[in-house]
Design a protein that fits this description.
Layout: E1 2-5, E2 8-11, H1 19-33, H2 40-47, H3 61-83, H4 89-106, H5 108-114, H6 122-141, H7 147-169, H8 177-194
Antiparallel strand pairs: 1-2
Helix pairs in contact: 1-2, 3-4, 3-5, 3-6, 4-5, 4-6, 4-7, 6-7, 7-8
Length: about 200
Amino acid sequence: MSRRYYGVTVPSTTRRHSRTSIVEIALAIADTRGLAAVSLANVADVAGCKPPSLYNHVDGLDDLLDEISLVTTADFAGALRDSVVAKVGEDAVRSYAHAWRAYITEFPARYQATLRAVPHRNDEHRAVAAGMTIPAGAVLSTLGIPDERLADAGRALRSALHGFAHLELSQLIGPDPAATFESVVDMLVAGLLSLTSEPGDHS
């Protein structure tokens, strides 16, 4: 016998958990109720154990949230990386942008988790976050943007996409977010392409 709780199948008898299974349960709670609902009490309830038992696998709530941040950042980076396989130039930029929005609309709590500071595991977080920035840099370079402008272009790309995501998740975009996003991407692409022109060259 088993039961469904927060989208997780939990056996009616006590099961042996691991750090991975505890993180999976926490992610399921985040997906269904939001990141703020991830607590040791809620995770233990789903896992079928007492909260103190979780300390066999995680060093408290902060450690669990840090692990979620690393896992979700790697997952998000993978989705972005996959979106630009065999694509170059403007097509790649648009695919990257749409993959960003698709992930955020499907997994808003996971996206929120990627923004968490992880000071005690900063090197790990920087390494997985590179999975977002490296594909972006490669894509932007295929537009013909000069090397000395790639860093600025990358920041502009991420700022625009993150800003739109924040507004959409806050329901501040308007009645047709998809159409607005297309306009934003059009303007973003035009702005990025302008970096490929020599100063004074507007042809």
